[in-house]
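During the reporting period the student researcher (J.K.) took over the structure-prediction task from the postdoctoral fellow and processed the backlog of single-chain submissions. One of the processed entries is reproduced below for the supervisory committee.
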Amino acid sequence: MKHYVLLGMLFSGFIALGQGSSLDKQFDAIEEKVIEWRHDIHQNPELGNREFKTAEKIAKHLRSLGIEVQTNVAHTGVVGILKGKKKGKVVALRADIDALPVTERNNLPFKSTVTSEFLGEKVGVMHACGHDTHVAILMGVAEILSKNTDKIKGSVKFIFQPAEEGAPPGEEGGAALMIKEGVLENPKVDAIFGLHINSQTPVGTIRYKSGGTMAASQRFVIKVKGKQSHGSQPWSGVDPILISAKIIDGLQTIISREVKLTDEAAVITVGKITSGVRFNIIPESAELIGTIRTLDYDMQKLINDRMKEMVPTIAKAYKGEATIVIEDGTAITYNDPALVTQMLPSMKSVAGEEYVLTQKAITGAEDFSFFQEKVPGFYFFLGGMTPGNTESFPHHTPDFKIDDNGLILGVKTLTQMSLDYLNM
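J.K. obtained the following C-alpha coordinates:
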Protein backbone atom coordinates (compact mmCIF):
# COMPACT_ATOMS: atom_id res chain seq x y z
CA MET A 1 0.00 0.00 0.00
CA LYS A 2 1.40 3.36 -0.98
CA HIS A 3 1.27 5.91 1.82
CA TYR A 4 1.25 9.66 1.47
CA VAL A 5 3.19 11.59 4.08
CA LEU A 6 0.92 13.85 6.14
CA LEU A 7 2.76 16.48 8.10
CA GLY A 8 2.00 17.22 11.74
CA MET A 9 2.45 20.67 13.22
CA LEU A 10 1.95 21.81 16.80
CA PHE A 11 -0.40 24.73 17.48
CA SER A 12 -1.03 26.30 20.88
CA GLY A 13 -4.07 24.59 22.42
CA PHE A 14 -4.14 21.91 19.74
CA ILE A 15 -3.73 18.16 20.08
CA ALA A 16 -0.46 17.21 18.38
CA LEU A 17 -0.87 14.65 15.61
CA GLY A 18 2.44 13.97 13.94
CA GLN A 19 4.69 11.20 12.73
CA GLY A 20 5.60 8.89 15.56
CA SER A 21 2.76 10.00 17.86
CA SER A 22 0.43 7.43 19.42
CA LEU A 23 -2.42 8.70 17.25
CA ASP A 24 -0.34 8.43 14.10
CA LYS A 25 0.46 4.80 14.87
CA GLN A 26 -3.27 4.14 15.33
CA PHE A 27 -3.97 5.67 11.94
CA ASP A 28 -1.39 3.43 10.30
CA ALA A 29 -3.00 0.42 11.96
CA ILE A 30 -6.54 1.27 10.87
CA GLU A 31 -6.01 2.26 7.23
CA GLU A 32 -6.43 -1.26 5.82
CA LYS A 33 -9.62 -1.74 7.85
CA VAL A 34 -11.09 1.50 6.50
CA ILE A 35 -10.38 0.37 2.94
CA GLU A 36 -11.91 -3.05 3.60
CA TRP A 37 -15.06 -1.44 5.02
CA ARG A 38 -15.29 0.78 1.98
CA HIS A 39 -14.98 -2.16 -0.44
CA ASP A 40 -17.66 -4.15 1.39
CA ILE A 41 -20.08 -1.20 1.43
CA HIS A 42 -19.33 -0.50 -2.23
CA GLN A 43 -20.22 -4.08 -3.17
CA ASN A 44 -23.46 -3.91 -1.19
CA PRO A 45 -25.02 -0.52 -2.01
CA GLU A 46 -28.56 0.44 -0.98
CA LEU A 47 -30.86 3.23 -2.13
CA GLY A 48 -32.17 6.03 0.09
CA ASN A 49 -34.35 5.02 3.07
CA ARG A 50 -33.53 1.38 2.28
CA GLU A 51 -29.99 1.22 3.71
CA PHE A 52 -30.81 -1.66 6.08
CA LYS A 53 -27.61 -3.72 5.80
CA THR A 54 -25.41 -0.64 5.72
CA ALA A 55 -27.03 0.66 8.91
CA GLU A 56 -26.65 -2.75 10.58
CA LYS A 57 -22.92 -2.80 9.73
CA ILE A 58 -22.42 0.69 11.13
CA ALA A 59 -24.38 0.04 14.34
CA LYS A 60 -22.55 -3.23 15.00
CA HIS A 61 -19.19 -1.49 14.62
CA LEU A 62 -20.11 1.42 16.91
CA ARG A 63 -21.44 -0.92 19.60
CA SER A 64 -18.21 -2.94 19.46
CA LEU A 65 -16.39 0.28 20.38
CA GLY A 66 -18.58 0.90 23.42
CA ILE A 67 -20.31 3.85 21.77
CA GLU A 68 -23.94 4.57 22.65
CA VAL A 69 -25.99 3.80 19.53
CA GLN A 70 -29.37 4.95 18.24
CA THR A 71 -30.85 3.21 15.19
CA ASN A 72 -33.86 3.73 12.91
CA VAL A 73 -33.33 7.49 12.98
CA ALA A 74 -35.06 9.00 9.93
CA HIS A 75 -35.88 5.43 8.82
CA THR A 76 -32.41 3.88 8.51
CA GLY A 77 -30.05 6.42 10.07
CA VAL A 78 -27.58 5.53 12.81
CA VAL A 79 -26.33 7.91 15.49
CA GLY A 80 -23.45 7.21 17.87
CA ILE A 81 -22.59 9.24 20.95
CA LEU A 82 -19.09 9.09 22.44
CA LYS A 83 -18.48 10.89 25.73
CA GLY A 84 -15.04 12.08 26.69
CA LYS A 85 -13.41 11.91 30.12
CA LYS A 86 -14.24 15.57 30.74
CA LYS A 87 -17.37 17.63 30.18
CA GLY A 88 -17.42 20.17 27.39
CA LYS A 89 -18.89 20.99 23.99
CA VAL A 90 -20.52 18.58 21.52
CA VAL A 91 -19.21 18.21 17.98
CA ALA A 92 -21.10 16.25 15.33
CA LEU A 93 -19.56 14.42 12.39
CA ARG A 94 -21.77 13.40 9.49
CA ALA A 95 -21.50 10.77 6.74
CA ASP A 96 -24.20 10.04 4.15
CA ILE A 97 -24.83 6.34 3.53
CA ASP A 98 -27.11 5.96 0.46
CA ALA A 99 -26.23 4.88 -3.08
CA LEU A 100 -27.62 5.83 -6.50
CA PRO A 101 -29.68 4.09 -9.21
CA VAL A 102 -26.63 3.75 -11.48
CA THR A 103 -25.26 0.56 -13.07
CA GLU A 104 -21.52 0.32 -12.40
CA ARG A 105 -19.29 0.12 -15.48
CA ASN A 106 -15.70 -0.65 -14.52
CA ASN A 107 -13.46 -3.59 -13.67
CA LEU A 108 -12.94 -3.02 -9.96
CA PRO A 109 -12.66 -6.30 -8.00
CA PHE A 110 -15.28 -4.93 -5.59
CA LYS A 111 -17.62 -3.70 -8.31
CA SER A 112 -21.33 -3.58 -7.46
CA THR A 113 -23.65 -6.00 -9.25
CA VAL A 114 -26.66 -5.12 -7.08
CA THR A 115 -29.99 -4.32 -8.69
CA SER A 116 -33.14 -2.82 -7.21
CA GLU A 117 -36.33 -1.02 -8.14
CA PHE A 118 -36.41 2.74 -8.60
CA LEU A 119 -39.54 4.62 -9.72
CA GLY A 120 -41.07 1.36 -10.89
CA GLU A 121 -38.06 0.29 -12.98
CA LYS A 122 -35.33 -2.28 -12.37
CA VAL A 123 -32.01 -0.48 -12.02
CA GLY A 124 -28.43 -1.12 -11.08
CA VAL A 125 -27.35 0.30 -7.73
CA MET A 126 -23.93 1.87 -7.21
CA HIS A 127 -22.06 4.14 -4.81
CA ALA A 128 -21.48 6.56 -7.69
CA CYS A 129 -20.87 9.56 -5.45
CA GLY A 130 -18.49 8.19 -2.85
CA HIS A 131 -20.83 7.80 0.11
CA ASP A 132 -19.22 4.41 0.73
CA THR A 133 -15.94 6.22 1.43
CA HIS A 134 -17.69 8.67 3.75
CA VAL A 135 -19.13 5.81 5.83
CA ALA A 136 -15.79 3.99 6.04
CA ILE A 137 -13.94 7.17 6.99
CA LEU A 138 -16.37 8.00 9.79
CA MET A 139 -16.28 4.42 11.08
CA GLY A 140 -12.51 4.83 11.24
CA VAL A 141 -12.78 8.16 13.09
CA ALA A 142 -15.16 6.55 15.58
CA GLU A 143 -12.68 3.75 16.28
CA ILE A 144 -9.75 6.13 16.78
CA LEU A 145 -11.65 8.51 19.04
CA SER A 146 -13.15 5.66 21.09
CA LYS A 147 -9.58 4.70 22.06
CA ASN A 148 -8.70 8.26 23.02
CA THR A 149 -11.50 9.46 25.28
CA ASP A 150 -8.88 10.92 27.61
CA LYS A 151 -8.20 13.49 24.88
CA ILE A 152 -11.89 14.37 24.44
CA LYS A 153 -13.25 17.28 26.42
CA GLY A 154 -16.97 16.93 25.73
CA SER A 155 -18.74 14.56 23.35
CA VAL A 156 -18.67 13.48 19.73
CA LYS A 157 -21.89 12.65 17.90
CA PHE A 158 -21.49 10.43 14.83
CA ILE A 159 -24.35 10.96 12.36
CA PHE A 160 -24.73 8.34 9.63
CA GLN A 161 -27.42 9.86 7.46
CA PRO A 162 -29.65 8.07 4.94
CA ALA A 163 -31.24 9.48 1.76
CA GLU A 164 -28.88 12.36 1.01
CA GLU A 165 -29.68 11.84 -2.67
CA GLY A 166 -33.37 12.22 -1.86
CA ALA A 167 -36.08 10.08 -0.32
CA PRO A 168 -38.38 7.93 -2.48
CA PRO A 169 -41.54 9.71 -3.72
CA GLY A 170 -44.07 10.15 -0.94
CA GLU A 171 -41.51 9.68 1.84
CA GLU A 172 -39.58 12.05 4.07
CA GLY A 173 -35.90 11.50 4.57
CA GLY A 174 -32.37 12.80 4.76
CA ALA A 175 -30.91 15.51 6.96
CA ALA A 176 -34.24 17.37 7.28
CA LEU A 177 -35.97 14.33 8.81
CA MET A 178 -33.04 13.60 11.12
CA ILE A 179 -33.23 17.17 12.43
CA LYS A 180 -37.01 16.87 12.78
CA GLU A 181 -36.46 13.75 14.90
CA GLY A 182 -33.99 15.59 17.16
CA VAL A 183 -30.57 14.47 15.97
CA LEU A 184 -29.01 17.80 16.94
CA GLU A 185 -30.38 17.58 20.50
CA ASN A 186 -29.75 15.37 23.55
CA PRO A 187 -26.93 16.27 23.71
CA LYS A 188 -27.24 19.58 21.88
CA VAL A 189 -24.70 19.93 19.08
CA ASP A 190 -22.44 23.01 19.07
CA ALA A 191 -20.82 22.52 15.66
CA ILE A 192 -20.86 19.99 12.83
CA PHE A 193 -18.22 18.85 10.33
CA GLY A 194 -18.65 16.92 7.11
CA LEU A 195 -16.60 15.99 4.08
CA HIS A 196 -17.16 14.83 0.51
CA ILE A 197 -14.70 12.76 -1.48
CA ASN A 198 -13.93 14.28 -4.88
CA SER A 199 -12.81 12.26 -7.89
CA GLN A 200 -11.30 15.29 -9.60
CA THR A 201 -9.12 16.42 -6.68
CA PRO A 202 -5.77 14.63 -6.19
CA VAL A 203 -5.25 12.38 -3.16
CA GLY A 204 -3.62 14.28 -0.31
CA THR A 205 -5.42 17.54 -1.14
CA ILE A 206 -8.27 19.25 0.71
CA ARG A 207 -10.41 22.00 -0.82
CA TYR A 208 -12.79 24.33 0.97
CA LYS A 209 -14.62 27.65 0.74
CA SER A 210 -15.74 29.93 3.53
CA GLY A 211 -19.36 31.14 3.31
CA GLY A 212 -21.61 29.78 0.56
CA THR A 213 -19.90 26.74 -0.90
CA MET A 214 -22.70 24.71 -2.54
CA ALA A 215 -25.98 25.86 -4.03
CA ALA A 216 -29.53 25.78 -2.80
CA SER A 217 -31.59 23.49 -5.03
CA GLN A 218 -35.22 23.76 -6.09
CA ARG A 219 -37.39 21.57 -8.28
CA PHE A 220 -39.96 23.03 -10.65
CA VAL A 221 -42.82 21.51 -12.64
CA ILE A 222 -44.41 23.37 -15.56
CA LYS A 223 -47.66 22.12 -17.05
CA VAL A 224 -48.55 23.45 -20.50
CA LYS A 225 -52.05 23.17 -21.97
CA GLY A 226 -52.67 23.51 -25.68
CA LYS A 227 -55.26 22.20 -28.13
CA GLN A 228 -54.84 18.86 -29.87
CA SER A 229 -54.92 18.71 -33.66
CA HIS A 230 -53.65 16.74 -36.63
CA GLY A 231 -49.94 17.24 -37.24
CA SER A 232 -50.66 18.27 -40.81
CA GLN A 233 -52.95 21.12 -39.67
CA PRO A 234 -51.18 22.98 -36.85
CA TRP A 235 -53.36 26.08 -37.45
CA SER A 236 -56.35 24.17 -36.10
CA GLY A 237 -54.73 23.57 -32.70
CA VAL A 238 -52.41 25.10 -30.10
CA ASP A 239 -49.03 23.37 -29.95
CA PRO A 240 -47.83 22.77 -26.35
CA ILE A 241 -44.47 21.51 -27.60
CA LEU A 242 -43.78 24.80 -29.36
CA ILE A 243 -44.88 26.68 -26.24
CA SER A 244 -42.57 24.51 -24.14
CA ALA A 245 -39.64 25.38 -26.40
CA LYS A 246 -40.39 29.09 -26.07
CA ILE A 247 -40.66 28.76 -22.27
CA ILE A 248 -37.29 26.99 -22.06
CA ASP A 249 -35.68 29.67 -24.20
CA GLY A 250 -37.30 32.41 -22.10
CA LEU A 251 -36.17 30.91 -18.79
CA GLN A 252 -32.55 30.98 -19.92
CA THR A 253 -32.76 34.73 -20.52
CA ILE A 254 -33.39 35.14 -16.78
CA ILE A 255 -29.92 33.71 -16.19
CA SER A 256 -28.18 35.38 -19.13
CA ARG A 257 -29.82 38.82 -18.96
CA GLU A 258 -31.37 39.44 -15.53
CA VAL A 259 -29.15 37.79 -12.89
CA LYS A 260 -25.91 39.49 -11.84
CA LEU A 261 -23.66 36.49 -12.36
CA THR A 262 -20.57 38.41 -11.26
CA ASP A 263 -21.97 38.15 -7.71
CA GLU A 264 -22.87 34.46 -7.64
CA ALA A 265 -23.55 31.66 -10.10
CA ALA A 266 -27.10 30.52 -10.88
CA VAL A 267 -28.56 27.78 -13.06
CA ILE A 268 -31.96 26.88 -14.50
CA THR A 269 -32.05 23.44 -16.13
CA VAL A 270 -35.00 21.63 -17.70
CA GLY A 271 -34.16 17.97 -17.26
CA LYS A 272 -37.32 16.26 -18.48
CA ILE A 273 -40.04 16.99 -21.05
CA THR A 274 -43.05 14.75 -21.51
CA SER A 275 -45.54 15.26 -24.35
CA GLY A 276 -47.26 13.51 -27.22
CA VAL A 277 -47.91 9.92 -28.27
CA ARG A 278 -47.57 9.90 -32.07
CA PHE A 279 -45.49 11.58 -34.77
CA ASN A 280 -48.47 13.13 -36.61
CA ILE A 281 -50.52 14.39 -33.67
CA ILE A 282 -50.05 17.75 -32.00
CA PRO A 283 -50.76 16.83 -28.38
CA GLU A 284 -52.99 18.59 -25.90
CA SER A 285 -50.44 19.04 -23.13
CA ALA A 286 -46.80 18.96 -22.09
CA GLU A 287 -44.93 18.77 -18.81
CA LEU A 288 -41.49 20.19 -18.06
CA ILE A 289 -39.50 19.28 -14.94
CA GLY A 290 -36.24 20.89 -13.92
CA THR A 291 -33.98 22.34 -11.27
CA ILE A 292 -32.90 25.78 -10.07
CA ARG A 293 -29.51 26.27 -8.37
CA THR A 294 -28.64 29.47 -6.50
CA LEU A 295 -25.98 30.64 -4.05
CA ASP A 296 -27.82 33.73 -2.84
CA TYR A 297 -31.36 33.84 -1.45
CA ASP A 298 -32.17 37.29 -2.92
CA MET A 299 -31.11 35.95 -6.30
CA GLN A 300 -33.26 32.86 -5.72
CA LYS A 301 -36.30 35.05 -5.05
CA LEU A 302 -35.67 37.08 -8.20
CA ILE A 303 -35.42 33.94 -10.33
CA ASN A 304 -38.52 32.37 -8.75
CA ASP A 305 -40.58 35.55 -9.21
CA ARG A 306 -39.54 35.97 -12.84
CA MET A 307 -40.23 32.32 -13.67
CA LYS A 308 -43.72 32.63 -12.19
CA GLU A 309 -44.33 35.76 -14.26
CA MET A 310 -42.80 34.49 -17.47
CA VAL A 311 -44.23 30.96 -17.81
CA PRO A 312 -47.97 31.81 -18.03
CA THR A 313 -47.26 34.94 -20.06
CA ILE A 314 -45.29 33.10 -22.75
CA ALA A 315 -47.98 30.43 -22.99
CA LYS A 316 -50.67 33.06 -23.35
CA ALA A 317 -48.72 34.76 -26.15
CA TYR A 318 -49.04 31.53 -28.15
CA LYS A 319 -52.72 30.99 -27.24
CA GLY A 320 -52.04 28.35 -24.61
CA GLU A 321 -51.99 28.13 -20.83
CA ALA A 322 -49.24 27.17 -18.40
CA THR A 323 -48.75 26.82 -14.66
CA ILE A 324 -45.56 26.48 -12.64
CA VAL A 325 -44.92 25.02 -9.20
CA ILE A 326 -41.54 25.52 -7.51
CA GLU A 327 -40.56 23.26 -4.60
CA ASP A 328 -37.66 23.88 -2.22
CA GLY A 329 -34.96 21.22 -2.07
CA THR A 330 -31.76 21.85 -0.17
CA ALA A 331 -30.55 25.10 1.37
CA ILE A 332 -27.25 26.82 0.60
CA THR A 333 -24.34 24.84 2.05
CA TYR A 334 -22.90 27.66 4.14
CA ASN A 335 -19.58 27.27 5.91
CA ASP A 336 -19.58 29.44 9.01
CA PRO A 337 -16.65 31.87 8.43
CA ALA A 338 -15.65 32.01 12.10
CA LEU A 339 -15.64 28.21 12.35
CA VAL A 340 -13.61 27.92 9.13
CA THR A 341 -11.00 30.33 10.48
CA GLN A 342 -10.93 28.42 13.76
CA MET A 343 -10.42 25.01 12.16
CA LEU A 344 -8.07 25.75 9.26
CA PRO A 345 -4.94 25.28 11.43
CA SER A 346 -6.19 21.79 12.30
CA MET A 347 -6.63 20.85 8.64
CA LYS A 348 -3.26 22.29 7.67
CA SER A 349 -1.51 20.51 10.54
CA VAL A 350 -2.64 17.19 9.07
CA ALA A 351 -2.47 17.67 5.30
CA GLY A 352 0.26 20.32 5.12
CA GLU A 353 -0.47 23.98 4.42
CA GLU A 354 0.25 23.71 0.68
CA TYR A 355 -2.37 20.96 0.32
CA VAL A 356 -5.29 22.82 1.90
CA LEU A 357 -6.64 24.99 -0.90
CA THR A 358 -9.54 27.38 -1.38
CA GLN A 359 -12.01 26.84 -4.20
CA LYS A 360 -14.90 28.67 -5.82
CA ALA A 361 -18.50 27.82 -4.96
CA ILE A 362 -20.11 25.02 -6.96
CA THR A 363 -23.70 24.62 -8.13
CA GLY A 364 -24.06 21.10 -6.81
CA ALA A 365 -26.29 20.78 -3.74
CA GLU A 366 -26.02 19.01 -0.38
CA ASP A 367 -28.58 18.45 2.36
CA PHE A 368 -25.77 18.88 4.89
CA SER A 369 -26.94 22.48 4.48
CA PHE A 370 -29.93 21.76 6.73
CA PHE A 371 -27.60 20.97 9.63
CA GLN A 372 -25.77 24.23 8.95
CA GLU A 373 -29.02 26.18 9.24
CA LYS A 374 -29.26 25.01 12.86
CA VAL A 375 -25.63 24.99 14.05
CA PRO A 376 -22.31 26.31 12.71
CA GLY A 377 -20.89 23.87 10.18
CA PHE A 378 -17.83 23.28 8.03
CA TYR A 379 -18.08 21.11 4.90
CA PHE A 380 -14.99 20.41 2.81
CA PHE A 381 -13.79 18.30 -0.10
CA LEU A 382 -11.27 15.45 0.14
CA GLY A 383 -9.06 14.40 -2.76
CA GLY A 384 -9.83 11.00 -4.24
CA MET A 385 -8.07 11.09 -7.62
CA THR A 386 -4.79 9.22 -8.10
CA PRO A 387 -2.02 11.87 -8.24
CA GLY A 388 -0.77 12.37 -11.79
CA ASN A 389 -3.87 10.81 -13.30
CA THR A 390 -4.98 12.64 -16.44
CA GLU A 391 -8.46 11.13 -16.42
CA SER A 392 -11.00 11.77 -13.70
CA PHE A 393 -14.20 9.83 -13.17
CA PRO A 394 -17.17 12.21 -12.64
CA HIS A 395 -19.62 11.70 -9.80
CA HIS A 396 -23.03 10.16 -10.56
CA THR A 397 -21.67 8.26 -13.58
CA PRO A 398 -21.19 4.50 -14.20
CA ASP A 399 -17.41 5.01 -14.42
CA PHE A 400 -17.01 6.81 -11.07
CA LYS A 401 -13.85 5.71 -9.29
CA ILE A 402 -11.97 6.72 -6.12
CA ASP A 403 -8.38 6.01 -5.09
CA ASP A 404 -8.40 4.20 -1.72
CA ASN A 405 -5.23 6.04 -0.69
CA GLY A 406 -7.32 9.18 -0.15
CA LEU A 407 -9.38 7.76 2.70
CA ILE A 408 -6.85 7.94 5.53
CA LEU A 409 -6.44 11.70 5.17
CA GLY A 410 -10.19 11.99 5.75
CA VAL A 411 -9.89 9.94 8.95
CA LYS A 412 -6.97 12.01 10.19
CA THR A 413 -8.56 15.35 9.33
CA LEU A 414 -11.92 14.71 11.00
CA THR A 415 -10.17 13.28 14.05
CA GLN A 416 -7.85 16.28 14.36
CA MET A 417 -10.67 18.78 13.84
CA SER A 418 -12.83 17.07 16.46
CA LEU A 419 -10.13 16.93 19.12
CA ASP A 420 -9.00 20.50 18.49
CA TYR A 421 -12.52 21.92 18.48
CA LEU A 422 -13.40 20.23 21.77
CA ASN A 423 -10.19 21.31 23.43
CA MET A 424 -10.30 24.97 22.37
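The committee noted the following: The radius of gyration is 24 Å.
J.K. will present the remaining backlog at the next meeting.
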